[in-house]
Design a protein that fits this description.
The complex is a heterodimer of chains A (196) and B (244). Chain A has 196 residues and is an all-alpha fold. Chain A has four helices and no strands. In chain A, helix 2 packs across helix 3. Chain A is rod-shaped, with a radius of gyration of 68 Å. Chain B is mainly alpha-helical and 244 residues long. Chain B has one domain (7-240). Chain B has helices at 29-50, 58-78, 86-102, 115-137, 155-167, 169-202, 204-240; strands spanning 19-20, 23-24. In chain B, strand 1 (19-20) and strand 2 form a beta hairpin. The longest helix of chain B has 37 residues, at 204-240. Chain B starts with 18 loop residues before the first strand and ends with a helix. The chains are: A mainly alpha (196), B mainly alpha (244).
Chain lengths: 196, 244
């Protein structure tokens, strides 16, 4: 009620002035009050309409859009950060996996090498044992041969010298005396024939 | 007379004469351009708000940039308390801007070049701001006229000056916009008249001026709308956050 009253008051004041100055139509058209009331009326109407539609319907939508975008961008940033962390974790896992497998491979390699070395060692030991055995046998044989060879040589020498004497002189000499001489000789000359 | 530079500001009736209690509220060319600018604003901002694209298209970008521009202007000058008046400031800025800009079209009528239109807007703002100030602060709003730190001897003088400056706000606000619009359009009309009267020989210079003035006037059209809106924000700030 009050608003209408005030409006009516303003309009009537303006109407009064427009009657007073109505004749002044030359010069600035802005000061010609003929259409002042009409302009005020239409200004209030159009601006009021514009204000109501804008503030009731359009501006809330725009602000909604802006906030929606803001929140979505924030969400996207959040998910991006999450994914970044995830990928970093995955990279760490991957690196750990690679390190593990490298270690495993190294272990396998080391074990295999150890085994092979052990095998080789075992085989070598066996072979060395065999060789040692053979060497011992051979040495024994040599020792035996050494032991038995002077006797045989003595025997041969005795028999040969008996034969020689028999053929040269035609007389048989006692084998035991010849062998005593041979033994005596061989004992004396032992250092000559055998180096040891 | 078409060459009269003031002729462009004439208001004439379009259609029948409408009268309520002997008061003439006929539809005029001024009313037509008010309606056109309001409709253009509504169409543009409606188109800019219907889609909800994450990456805005051009018209949506326009609407959203305007929204953030006005929003920032209000929060910079009036603080967070100015938020409820966003709709009004936004409508005011857009209305003045589009009226100014539409006035730049040839043969168009500039609504804001009429003192009565700008004065009604300014008076409404003045009354509204005063009412808001008294509602928010009661009689304490009168402290606005008593700046702090002024010697008591000077106080009567200062209070008188402050009251006069406060009361002259609607006049300065309305005259600034109206005078800028009228002067600019008159200048353009005068230079346009020179182009015709000097003809092919000497008309080129005023034509160049006319072109330059058109650019200047577009700048002024935006600037005055901005000034109108930001002064409204500053007055609102005085009413909302009493500093004195």
């Amino acid at each position: 009620m009050h608003k209408r009253l005030v409006l009516y008051l303003i309009l009537s004041v303006i109407a009064f002035f427009s009657n007073v100055y109505g004749a002044e139509s030359e010069g600035m058209p802005q000061l010609n009050p003929e259409f002042w009331v009409s302009q005020i009326f239409w200004l209030i109407l159009t601006f009021g309409f514009l204000f109501i539609i804008l503030s009731k319907f359009i501006l809330p939508k725009i602000s909604n859009n802006l906030e929606l975008r803001k929140s979505q961008i924030l969400e996207n940033i959040e998910t991006a950060e999450k994914q970044k962390i995830e990928s970093e974790n995955k990279i760490k896992e991957y690196e750990a996996l690679i390190n593990n497998s490298k270690n495993e491979a190294r272990n396998y390699f080391n074990e295999a090498r150890k085994k092979i070395i052990q095998d080789i060692d075992k085989k070598r030991e066996k072979i060395e044992e065999e060789i040692n055995l053979e060497i011992q046998n051979a040495e024994k044989e040599i020792v035996e041969l050494k032991k038995s060879s002077p006797e045989k040589i003595n025997k041969i020498a005795t028999e040969t010298s008996a034969q020689l004497i028999k053929q040269l002189i035609g007389e048989e000499i006692n084998n035991s005396s010849i062998s005593a001489i041979v033994e005596d000789l061989s004992k004396r000359n032992k250092g000559k024939y055998y180096d040891n | 007379m078409a060459t009269n530079p003031m002729h462009q500001f004439n208001v004439y009736r379009i259609g029948p004469e409408i009268k309520i209690d002997q008061i003439d509220i006929s539809f005029t060319n001024a009313s037509l351009f008010m309606v056109i600018s309001s409709l253009i604003i509504l169409i543009i901002f409606n188109l800019g708000s219907v889609k909800k694209n994450i990456i805005p298209n051009k018209i949506q970008l326009l609407a959203e940039l305007s929204y953030s521009f006005i929003s920032k202007m209000i929060s910079d000058t009036a603080g967070s308390k100015g938020k409820p008046y966003f709709g009004f400031i936004f409508s005011l800025f857009m209305f003045v801007l589009f009226c100014n800009m539409l006035g730049m079209l040839p043969y168009a009528f500039t609504v804001t070049s009429h003192i009565i239109v700008t004065f009604v807007l300014a008076a409404f703002i003045f009354i509204g701001v005063t009412v808001i100030g008294f509602i928010k602060h009661g009689l304490g709003y009168l402290k606005l006229f008593v700046p702090s730190g002024v010697p008591i001897v000077l106080l009567p003088l200062i209070v008188v000056i402050e009251v006069i400056s406060y009361l002259s706000r609607p006049i300065s606000l309305s005259v600034r916009l109206f005078a800028n619009m009228m002067a600019g359009h008159t200048m353009m009309k005068v230079f346009g008249g020179f182009v015709i009267s000097l003809g092919l020989v000497g008309g080129w210079l005023p034509l160049g001026f006319s072109v330059a003035l058109t650019g200047l006037e577009i700048l002024v059209a935006f600037l005055q709308a901005y000034v109108f809106a930001i002064l409204t924000c500053i007055y609102l700030n005085d009413a909302l956050n009493l500093h004195h």
